[in-house]
Design a protein that fits this description.
Two copies of one chain form a homodimer.
Chain A (H helix, E strand, L loop, with lengths): L6 E3 L12 H20 L11 H8 L14 H17 L3 H17 L8 H4 L10 H4 L1 H19 L3 H16 L16 H12 L2 H13 L6 H8 L34 E2 H18 L2 H17 L15 E2 L14 H15 L5 H17 L15 E2 L1 H6 L19 H10 L6 E4 L17 E3 L5 E7 L2 E9 L6 E8 L7 E4 L7 E5 L2 E2 L3 E3 L2 E4 L8 E6 L3 E6 L9 E6 L2 E6 H4 L6 E3 L5 E6 L11 E11 L9 E3 L4 E10 L11 E2 L2 E2 L1
Parallel strand pairs in A: 6-10
Antiparallel strand pairs in A: 1-5, 2-3, 4-24, 5-6, 7-8, 8-9, 9-15, 10-14, 11-12, 11-15, 13-14, 16-17, 17-18, 17-25, 18-23, 18-24, 19-21, 20-21, 21-23
Helix pairs in contact in A: 1-3, 1-17, 2-3, 2-4, 3-7, 3-17, 7-8, 7-9, 9-10, 9-12, 10-12, 12-13, 12-14, 14-15
Chain lengths: 669, 669
């Protein structure tokens, strides 16, 4: 264990989920989302946007005549699906699925060129142009996603065919890029391969891949800037014209405006940023690079303390799907891409391995229970690319500034990055629940106390956990109905020795937590968001954690202009929203009574029946501005005219599952 | 007088302005704005964006070698300047200015082609392409503006050179377009020539011009659509490529999506819409076309009752500089172009001639005292294209959704439509003050009472008015210090006979007006926003009108989502705003106390010294959200923490004359 790695996550297979909330989502992914997406990738889904992804590989493999169709990054859709399916396989054997995967892996490997190159857009008659347009062409991005798929499939099945192919591909790329003379000093236009190379390194132990990941990060943004040179030497001349508009590079857009060490605020395309920060955290940890860690920490703070929506969404503008600047979080025009929040979860997950602070779990939870779940319809067949904080359907239709905000989920997208990204995250959820500690504390400093082999519980998801530490293993069982219910029960079946200890994350939203051990209030010490039960946890112990979950009104930092005078409703990690269906038209006319009662009522909502029998709905006292007497006029002297109303809020992640209508997260108080 | 013309405006020369508020603006236009813009048009202003407008005419006239430079509508900048200068001349002789104008008119007339065609973009080697791209190329727009200039110069000086040239041009166009066989059934991509042809008709009496204006309006939007045909036959083939992106026509953009009679909501480019509605009102009046009038009235109601900002600005989105839909009035991203509000004043002015309702004067005032004045800096040398309701300078810089909103006025624009438009409006202000009534009431219905030859006073601007009616003339003198002070004094020097009557507009914002005649409360009857003094007004009468001007909080229709829970400060016709300079950073943290005191304090503000000795500043009780204890966090449970503060508001039209900073019109209450 490196001196900066203070905790290690566990394998998906070692954390089977048996949870009232999550098991259904897991089944949905397994039984609906993956089969549905497979049909889409094979263009067998009549109403969905065409994909052509599998066919592109068949054509590249010489199995079929035809032309490439789709975005330059179309290959990655299949890769992400393979990765998601691998996580499902790891969680639960499925020979039929494995067979489908083996068949498509055969095609992929056939499509690979003799030298290791793999990209169906370029093999379709453009190989002479390979690596000449890194800014736009996503070659490394696609390769990266396939590397992730290969590592996941290998881990799930032990089969090396795709892994070996992607190792060849990685070696091919390492032959093209690097510091050695004759190699290009370029790096990807869309970051992704960096974190994928780390996975390949972890799966194979081959240092070359880690070195290449590190090179891409270290080289990025150095002067003279590669993308500016590429623009002058190649792209500007349009010798190779893609479908994308040929524009001079925007270095902020893909975070190549300065060396990564000098970056301290999140800028540009949010998904690119998240994938890069994730890789930076990986490399910092593995290489013990403290300067890189400090850059990660600065970026983490900027993202989560200054540029993150309350739902865990990031990206304040559709222009470049990008970050803007501190405290600029407009609700009506938020971009808030699903993939960016998934990337944020990756980033949090990596940071957690170096710094045992509850904030990482808090942000993971925020993004997971709100954006990621909200991005998929209750039936697993429709998705959101943009996760709005506010919907006015007429504005989405008629105001071009808001046309990116869709009031209904879509079946698929021409740029279909988000649906398979959701699938791979949900299928791999097990790995985020537990981790175990090494002997060091935050960034190289040994813990004051000895917490070696401590078991951490980050997420409250019922099921079993088998955690192998250096001295032996923990076996624990988690029960509960989080995030709906307050109580979590842990049964300890096995511990690795006398010094066994357990640390429970006390979520940042929780203002009153109780921990009992075998029916008695437990001794514990709070540190950075974790309750440490350090005194010899034993097999047979029963730990009961109660996280008090009142409905709360949350306010934003007053610097967030868009949320001034407003509050959001939250219960546990779940953000609530108002929908027109429950509250009538014009949600902006509603005002919450800050001092008024707010109750939780369990409702059976028809649309969510497939997932939940009962939903905790919040009913709150509020007021509605009277609309009488306006008769077509726009302005008149201010006379407050409100009537008391009951405001009903549902969990944000369930919005848009009924008739399309208005939706609102931030409500006036 | 046509049966639909119920009132006629008067000549600029007959309403000399001697007003403490406006005389300085008039002088500013005369002594600074016009000379400054003349330098810009001649490219002698080093820091301003290049214009080349005069040079384009010199090149077209064969007086100089060179190429056309600028937008396809560059000619119109010079035309608008000539029109503005003509109004100045009409108001006050200026031989030096007249000499400059004669010289440039000589160049313009030399630049005209033998057949009457005039457009320096096309005469610069593109004459074979004339009239082939009406959608984009602004030929008729430029011709229209020069016709307006010609009519204005003729009216001011009696000189016919430019007028005759533009009559030849109009006849040339009439030879190209119309219902007769062999003529094109096209109409302009940017409406303007329609209203200009009406002016040419009014200056010359030539029916052909009116007929052509009417044809352009009647033909617009008919099926098969001219622009769709032009797209298929010419534009799509790119035989003639302009600098503009070649896109399929957006028929909503230039209001050709349906026949004008069927239009009932304002859509598309706001300036195009306003110029078209103005021309529609002209044609409805002159032709006695009631169906056209009803269309105008529907459009008027949609614009002013559903799509107008409180400042009199219109245009809710920068995409297409356009209207969006009813009640969609976002503050942060408003487009609110200066020219659109000027167009709205034209539209109101024309509607007023057919329907004596105070709403037209109200809207005129709203646009004039807020947008038009606000669009020009106190020194007359810097201008706004977009008139924001809210400024956060960092967002203008870093959030692309708000990049069109400039926190400081600009010296000139590449697309320089707005500065000369302001000049021509301010220089012609006299014509908006008075009008006199014919014998008919609203749209063809005779007045129940006989109000023939009634004198109307629409705007309260001090000075003299000589109004020639059919039976004789009125001579009145107006005194006061509107909009700062409540009292207006009218001295009647001459009346046309025993039945003389005066109608005073009681502004819509005024909730308590008092009218005295010779020191006694006057007898008057209110009708649609006017106080009618019908009983034999006599020479020597002194009328004192007191318009009570308390500071008021104004609310928006609750359907305007963007203004929910907010109010604007208004006093008289003047909308107020908060600036960072007076209220500190983060104006969104401020809340007005709806029941609290609001006082007017006269302040000497350094920046406005050139225009005003004292400015009525509003001081109000309010609260500011405390920013303590947030230390880099974004969200926390809602606990109202406010401290009482004094909120200071200045007239909106004076915003941005100090250090750049935040600005806000709609404040939380």
């Amino acid at each position: 264990m490196n001196h900066m790695e203070i905790s290690r996550p566990i394998e998906i297979r070692n954390a089977p989920i048996k949870d009232r909330f999550w098991s259904r989502y897991q089944e949905l992914v397994r039984n609906t989302v993956l089969p549905y997406q497979w049909e889409v990738l094979n263009d067998r889904m009549p109403d969905a946007a065409p994909s052509h992804a599998v066919q592109n590989f068949r054509i590249a493999a010489g199995l079929e005549e035809g032309s490439f169709y789709g975005e330059v990054f179309q290959d990655s859709d299949l890769a992400k699906w393979l990765e998601a399916a691998s996580y499902c396989l790891e969680g639960k054997a499925n020979p039929e699925l494995e067979n489908i995967m083996d068949n498509v892996i055969d095609i992929i490997v056939k499509a690979q060129q003799d030298d290791g190159y793999l990209d169906t857009y370029f093999t379709a008659g453009r190989r002479d142009k390979e690596w000449t347009n890194l800014y736009e062409c996503h070659e490394m991005y696609c390769a990266g996603h396939m590397m992730e798929a290969a590592a996941a499939y290998y881990k799930a099945t032990g089969k090396r065919k795709l892994l070996d192919a992607m190792c060849r591909c990685a070696s091919h790329i390492a032959g093209q890029f690097g510091e050695d003379e004759g190699k290009k000093r370029g790096y990807p236009g869309h970051q992704e391969i960096e974190l994928a190379l780390v996975k390949l390194y972890e799966a194979t132990g081959t240092e070359e891949y880690l070195k290449l990941a590190s090179f891409f990060l270290e080289e990025r943004g150095k002067e003279p800037n590669y993308f500016l040179e590429e623009w002058e030497t190649t792209r500007r001349k349009r010798t190779f014209k893609t479908d994308m508009p040929t524009e001079a590079p925007n270095l902020f857009y893909n975070q190549s405006h300065k060396a990564v060490y000098g970056q301290d605020s999140a800028v540009g395309h949010a998904v690119r940023a998240m994938y890069m920060y994730t890789a930076m955290s990986d490399v910092a940890r593995i290489e013990g690079n403290e300067e890189m860690y400090r850059a990660c920490r600065r970026l983490w703070e900027d993202v989560t303390n200054r540029q993150m929506y309350i739902t865990g969404a990031v990206g304040s503008t559709p222009t470049g799907e990008a970050f803007t600047f501190a405290y600029d979080l407009p609700n009506e025009t938020a971009y808030a891409e699903t993939c960016a929040s998934i990337g944020l979860i990756f980033f949090a997950h990596r940071m957690q391995r170096m710094d045992m602070d509850g904030v990482y779990g808090d942000v993971m939870e925020r993004a997971l229970y709100n954006v990621v779940l909200g991005a998929m319809s209750g039936d697993g067949k429709q998705f959101l690319y943009v996760n709005p904080l506010e919907i006015w359907p007429e504005a989405s239709e008629k105001n071009p500034q808001r046309s990116h905000v869709k009031p209904v989920r879509q079946k698929w997208f021409g740029c279909a990055c988000c649906p398979p990204n959701i699938a791979r995250l949900l299928a791999s959820l097990g790995q985020y629940i537990y981790s175990w500690a090494g002997k060091y504390g935050c960034v190289g400093k040994p813990f004051a106390d000895n917490r070696e082999d401590m078991l951490y519980i980050h997420l409250y998801i019922a099921g079993e956990g088998t955690i192998e530490t250096e001295r032996g293993k923990y076996k624990v069982e988690q029960e509960g109905n989080y995030p709906w219910e307050e109580e979590i029960r842990l049964t300890i079946h096995e511990v690795p020795g006398e010094k066994a200890g357990i640390a429970l994350r006390i979520p940042g939203w929780c203002r009153s937590a109780a921990v009992e051990r075998n029916g008695q209030p437990a001794f514990y010490r709070m540190e950075k968001g974790y309750a440490y039960l350090e005194k010899g946890v034993k097999a047979g112990d029963e730990i009961r954690l109660t996280l008090s979950m009142p409905v709360e009104l949350i306010q934003a930092n007053p610097k967030v202009r868009a949320d001034a005078g407003k509050a959001a409703i939250q219960r546990g990690p779940v953000i609530y929203c108002l929908e027109q269906e429950d509250n009538g038209e014009n949600l902006s006319a509603l005002r919450l009574d800050a001092g008024g009662r707010m109750e939780v009522v369990y409702n059976k909502l028809a649309f969510s029946a497939a997932l939940f029998e009962q939903i905790p709905v919040v009913v709150a006292k509020g007021f509605r501005t009277a609309e009488d007497g306006w008769e077509g006029s726009l302005y008149r002297p201010y006379v407050p005219q409100e009537k008391e109303v009951e405001i009903k809020a549902i969990p944000y992640f369930l919005w848009g599952n009924r008739k399309p209508g208005e939706m609102l997260v931030w409500v006036r108080v």
